Fold:
Amino acid sequence: MQQSHEGRNSLTCSEGRRTYVVNRGLLRGPSQAKPILQNESGEHHRPLGLHRGTPDAPPPSCPGFGEASRSLLPVPSPAPAPRPRAHLHHVTQVLLADALALRRPTRLFAATEASSRSLQRPPGSFSECISQAQAAVKGAIEDGYTLVEVEFPPLPVALLEDVSSSADDIMKANVNLGLDFAQVFALDKTVKLLYPDTFEATRAKEILGTTSPGPNVEIHSMRKTAASTATSFDQLLGGIFGKRAGELDLPEKAGYFICLGFSCQELPDLEELHKTYPDVPIIGFNLKLDSARGDLGLPAFPPRDLHNRFLSRWKPSYLLRTRSYALSLPRPPFVLSYQGALFRSYPEPFQTLLDVGDGRYKAVDVADARPALGEFKDILTQNLQLGENEDTNSVLGKLRKGVVNKTWWERLSDDEESTEWRT
Structure:
């Protein structure tokens, strides 16, 4: 890495095709400086990474960086040269060998400052993440919940946001993590890993190399291919262009159903599964139900009523959701990037974690109900120590941060048949 130039308020360093531009802004007043990343187009970023390796691993050497640069992640320059696919495959193979096979811990979060309540800390590796999720789901099932949600990033955020990453790379990670997650439930009962259609089930079998990847673990497709069940040319075309094409093929009863890869259009199939086996626990593994709720009601998607009668009954037993934001300031650096995470491990409450620098996260709020997306951002913003002249509750501060809105599914409604998804 070499230093290209240093200005009054910024320092630019480069390493290969990557460029670092650090604005020497202040996050917590004049006594504690924290670097802000911006790309060459002027957009400010400081991405929240699920860091690979130990938290004390030093960053690439660059003149002028101290302890605050440990969490520094490379930001692509405006027009990076296309990366060869071979490089991505190499990265994916290394990641899967280390993180997904769990032979070497992969860093998810560094130390979290203790809050006033003794709560579980976010995972420090994918191995710890799976263990926490298993314990949380088992606890929720023992308490009588049969619709259980698990969500966490399947890959480090840096790789998820890489333009070279593909849906197949994410699927590989989820397939391997899903199998690791299923092991503890397969000790005494049959577990079926459910995929939305024959294509994805076949791809999962190719990734794992078998149709029965473990004792008491089976792979099943919820729908047969349209080509094998179509009785007309119109149905065949529907199988080519429609996600829910083909005949619904419900599996035989099992001890647990773990569902992977279901999109918003395919969630009604899970509703049919639950109606058929109401007493069998259904575990949604990284289905991103919040994103799916946002698609409800759009053309060619299920109606919003699906949330009220079905999705509202899913219990978020294990949740690790990361978010990055930017705040406008009236003084340099004018735009401040900050980040945080929402963490919940059943039966504990929801923790709002703020990145306070040096690889540390502080629990700034604890609530029994899941905060709305806008409320989560507002909590993080209010806990930024910006100095005497930066009051986010002032009129100008409220104008800069915008109005806190709730999505349609986050607003309280009498049409909701359950509030389990909120707690």
